[in-house]
Amino acid sequence: MARTRDESSPLFAGNAAGTLRLIIYLALAMVLMVLDQRNGWLWRLRYGASAVVEPVYRLAGLPAVGVRTMSVAFADRQRLTEQNQRLREDLLLANAKLNRMAAVAEQNQRLKELLDTQHSLELNVQLARVIGVDLGAYRYQLTLNVGGRDGVKPGQPVIDAHGVMGQVKEVLPTTAVVMLITDPAHAIPVVIERSGLRTVAYGSRDGDQLALPNIPLAADVRAGDKLLTSGLGGRFPPGFPVGEIVSVAPAATGMFQVAQARPAADLDRSEDVLLLHDQAEPDGPPAPVKPMGPPSDLAPVTGAAPAASSVTRPAATPATSGVPR
Amino acid sequence: MNKQRLSLWWFIGTLVFALLSMLVPLPGVLEPFKPYWPALVLLYWSLESEDRVTLGLAFMVGLGADLLNGVVLGEQALRLCALVFIALRFRSRLRFFPMWQQALAVLALLLNDRILLLIVRVLAGGTLPPASWWISPFVGAALWPFLFLLLDDLRARLRIQ
What we know:
By secondary structure, chain A is α+β, with helices and mostly antiparallel strands.
């Protein structure tokens, strides 16, 4: 019976000082959030604290590594042999294809030299390993075991054996965070392999699909079409597989078609990924063609200009707009 | 003296362990079932050890979690502050609840926490999470009795406050 209740936890009434402190702390947290949202303090702070943060990541990744090692250690011999056999067959097939491609690549190179373009088919890549850490952003991120010290820079594309996975978002000295293509805040310019239609694939809310919300109604798109990177925007090099269209339906507004696509890369199973080192050449639309016509010093001052432009414009539009309406 | 130091280290150790378990990923299917460990451990300590857990401590733990998590600085600080404030205010009553009632209270606290998180993310321009995102508080509440008994038992075995 002797224990007297202290002031800090009253049974019914609250004390004003506690509420005041709560308000102060909440305000402080909100100020921090706003400042971080505006200035990106958090990443600078994280970079500074990387000596603490990175070992914690490695430590948190240990269980995942442990499970992986255990699954190898306790896998039966038969399964490993089968896997080995399958890998050897894959390698044989890939090598055979490569040998055939070599001739084509050489020819392509020569043709490109004739055309005087700079694209090369060579890949300058860096192997990286995924650290199993959950960064609490609904699984739209990966952490890699390479970072600024290995020459990783934000914006580098990340691929695996099957296709594009995403791009490097933030870099710490020895780790890097990758934003996956399924992140709702991510968009990647794609081209449909069969029809050559260019469009943009966004991440979607459900987390494991891509959404293509603005395909023209008249465009020829079917389920099963493959999506490749188009190289527009200059971030992802052209020609890498992105995904495969699962379904197409008219949008609710009736102005576009909406397609859903499944990513080609194994976003949640890949352990080893490749970082592309050479970024794509800025491969945007061609420079605008100089308007044909008499030299400007010969042009009449006013009056005749509208007539002249209405003649030249219809001829110019079909040539510049590659996408069918 | 030694006992006190041990109990302090035990207190810090559980909090660090909670932060670590927050970072440990689960296999894909189980991912939405992961409870918010720092909140559960802080709740335990705020019920059991009134003098150690203050709003300032919750704020610092939250900042540490934000630093590790890398979403927005101050997000978890805000959530944990609100959680600990409510827990401390109703501490005297929560302590003497039967276990199932306590678990329900924890469920309410964790749901409140999720709502706060949702408000913060939406205000920061994020998208709405999938429906499975709401499973986590229920898992946390279901685990609460076990976590409480385990931590209590360990504390009794170590004979620390």
